[in-house]
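Why does residue order matter? Because the sequence determines the fold. Keep that principle in mind as you read this record.
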Amino acid sequence: MRRANSSRSFSDKALTASIIFSLLIEKILSSQESLAKVDLTLNRTIDLVPVSAYTQTHPVNMEFDLQCQRCAACCRWPGEVRLVGDDARKLAAFLGLSEKDFVERHTRLRNDRTGLALKERDDHSCIFLEGNSCLVHAVKPQQCQEFPNHWANLLWGKVSVETMRRDYPMLFACSAFRKFLKAHRL
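Structure:
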């Protein structure tokens, strides 16, 4: 009996993956954008700063673990929220939708055409933002969970604060990151 349940579970997962893959293919084929128009300029060249000059005023070997202040600045910033892993499944379940319905209603093809991203409003804010509240905060996508820590951990000690401010302004819109900077007088 146990084996039958695990087989059925595997079949359900395979069916779900098949549905999501089919929807992704449909979005790719129905997309009006040509591949040539997709903006792939998101990778920025960053100015590296000699560590010796940087360590005089900045702790380099630190791991950021900033707590979300729910300021919603990141939710209003233009860009795409990429769905990875089981993001779509968790969001669909939380909203009481099938994965297929969730994908059709709330996602679009990523700009790089490699997966799904959440749709955004005309003002570029997240479709799940209401006022300053995230309607799906309990199951927010991995990208949202990792902000601002992922970016800060990638950049801190490798680029100057001035370069970070210039090239990654969304990080400085985040109240948790601003609070950290203020506490360290940066």
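Residues 1-8, 31-57 have pLDDT under 50 and may be disordered.
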